[in-house]
């Protein structure tokens, strides 16, 4: 897996690039090709998106529980301390 950041000045096209990759941008011309990836990709959008369900379900997104993956996400999101305090 790779972590890629898209950075640039306001209005330079970062969001448009990502919208094009996701197929959410109307093309005027040309083609957009995204190679098939076995594991897909994630996007941290400007607008937060969360399901009205548990933290666990928001992390798993309908997938089977995998303790290693779940703990990695908790650590990556710096949620360990918050969840320990609430005993979730």
Automatic annotation (TrEMBL):
GO molecular function: ATP binding; ATP hydrolysis activity; ATPase-coupled transmembrane transporter activity
Keyword ATP-binding: yes
Pfam family, one: ABC_tran
Sequence ranges assigned to domain ABC transporter in this UniProt record: 1-65
Keywords associated with the record: ATP-binding, Nucleotide-binding
Taxonomy, superkingdom: Eukaryota
InterPro entries (UniProt xref): ABC_transporter-like_ATP-bd, ABC_transporter_C-like, P-loop_NTPase
GO cellular component annotations of the record: membrane
Cited PANTHER family: ATP-BINDING CASSETTE SUB-FAMILY C, ATP-BINDING CASSETTE SUB-FAMILY C MEMBER 10
Protein name, per record: ABC transporter domain-containing protein
Lineage: Eukaryota, Metazoa, Chordata, Craniata, Vertebrata
